[in-house]
Amino acid sequence: MIRVLIVDDHPIVREGVAAVLEREHDIEVVGAADTLADGLRLTTKLRPDVILLDLKLPDARSIDEGVAAFARASGGIVVFTAYDGDEDVYRAISGGARGYLLKGSPAADIVQAIRQVHDGESYLSPRIAAKLVTGVKQPRSRSGLLSARERGVLGLVAAGLSNRQIAHALSISERTVKFHVTSIFNKLGAENRAQAVALAAARGLLPAQ
Length: 209
Known about the structure:
Blueprint: E1 2-7, H1 11-21, E2 27-33, H2 36-46, E3 50-53, H3 63-73, E4 76-81, H4 86-95, E5 99-102, H5 107-118, E6 123-124, H6 126-137, H7 148-158, H8 163-170, H9 174-188, H10 193-202
Parallel strand pairs: 1-2, 1-3, 3-4, 4-5, 5-6
């Protein structure tokens, strides 16, 4: 059974999502909160497997603070938000979220996101993925350090996609994705994906919104 905590400051959202999830045989809504502080308290008390987290809570000073606080307390975070800006996505993923889901998504997408994150995978709302892929296909030249394709791949890495998901999104082989990721690491002097994203962000190499 996947134990889910819903953290959102809108009652209608909490109630609506809970009603959707309670229909699933393998998902149990163990609690709901409307603030960062109350959500963290319930996380410590209830130990949920997955937290469905509103991106901008009234008592969170920043996206990074809210997501990072829950990431330290729980293993699986699915951001559930109306905000689809690239910067919001990057900051949420960098803060520790493994899923990014837009409000208004079909019930099936909410359930899929929770299951994938619980299984240790990442999930990106289809609309977000399509938006990022558009940026990949029409990249803005910002530096000669990385090629256009490498910047595109890096943008999807920053959004939390696995090599397999990137390959599917760009219609290329997983082997080709691995080649690009290795090249990105070498050019940036990075040892892993998180470090590559951090170094690229510092140099302004991530795709612009």
